[in-house]
Structure formats: structure tokens, C-alpha cells
Design goal:
Structural class: mainly alpha
Shape: globular
Order of helices and strands: HHHHHHH
Oligomer: single chain
Strand content: under 5%
Number of strands: 0
Length: 144
């Protein structure tokens, strides 16, 4: 019998997927590291926000704004998942932040840092990117 490429490239222990990890979310130490990393992003965004003297009322007003993407679930799970994940992706928030700093647009930089802080806070609490299967299925855990 011919071995597949995956069997040749990976040891048998790496091929086996346990019942807990086949759900699509991380467990154990990896989950802890991802949550700590997210808290670090939250703390760094807060530090940079304060260091640049941005408005705290603006922070309070916009901190939960990315969660408005939940409204896209009215269009179904695929639309909701796509919108939610787009609004909870560091790449988009970081692009806005850097554009704001490099183009000397303080409002854009402030909004980007608020966005990064929101994502970091969410993920530090265990809320991850969504799967289209169910609203509670995230890359970090299965929410109750």
C-alpha cells in the first residue's frame, strides 16, 4: 500500500487528531499563549493610545463598535461570519493604525488603536474568530 505525502512528511503522532481538537479550536497551552498574546496587543494599544494623548471619550464611544458586525448575521451565518471576522482581524486594524500615523491623520490612528484594543480584549477573554457552523464556534473555544 502506498503512503500518502502527509504520512511521509509527518510522524504518526502529528497525523492523529484528538476528539477535542477536531472541533477547530485550540486547547491547552496554545490557547493560553494566544490569550496572553491578545492581552499584550490590548495593553500595547492602550499604551500607544495614552502616549499619543488621544481622546478617552472617543475610546469609550468606539470600543465596542466592531461588535456591530453581529448585525450581519441577519443576512445568514455566512454573511455574519464574514463581517464579524473582518471586523475582528488584526490586519485591518493595524493597516488603519499605520495609515493614520504615517499620513499624520490622528483620528485614523486613534480609531485603529481602539480597534486593536477591542480585538485584543475580546481574544484575551476567549472570543475568537467565528466559524459559520454556529455563532459560538470560534478558533479559540466553543462558547456556551
Amino acid at each position: 500500500m502506498r503512503a500518502s505525502i502527509m504520512q511521509i512528511a509527518l510522524p504518526a503522532s502529528a497525523i492523529h487528531v484528538s476528539a477535542r481538537t477536531d472541533k477547530g479550536f485550540v486547547t491547552g497551552g496554545v490557547r493560553v499563549v494566544l490569550r496572553l498574546e491578545s492581552f499584550a496587543a490590548f495593553a500595547a494599544a492602550l499604551f500607544l493610545y495614552a502616549h499619543n494623548g488621544f481622546s478617552w471619550p472617543l475610546f469609550a464611544l468606539l470600543f465596542l463598535a466592531p461588535d456591530l458586525a453581529i448585525a450581519a448575521y441577519l443576512g445568514g451565518p455566512r454573511a455574519g461570519t464574514a463581517a464579524y471576522n473582518l471586523m475582528h482581524t488584526y490586519a485591518c486594524a493595524l493597516a488603519l493604525t499605520l495609515a493614520g500615523f504615517f499620513a499624520s491623520m490622528p483620528l485614523a490612528a486613534a480609531c485603529g488603536l481602539i480597534w486593536i484594543a477591542h480585538i485584543g480584549f475580546d481574544r484575551a477573554l476567549g472570543y475568537g474568530l467565528k466559524y459559520a457552523t454556529e455563532f459560538g464556534d470560534t478558533h479559540l473555544t466553543r462558547l456556551a
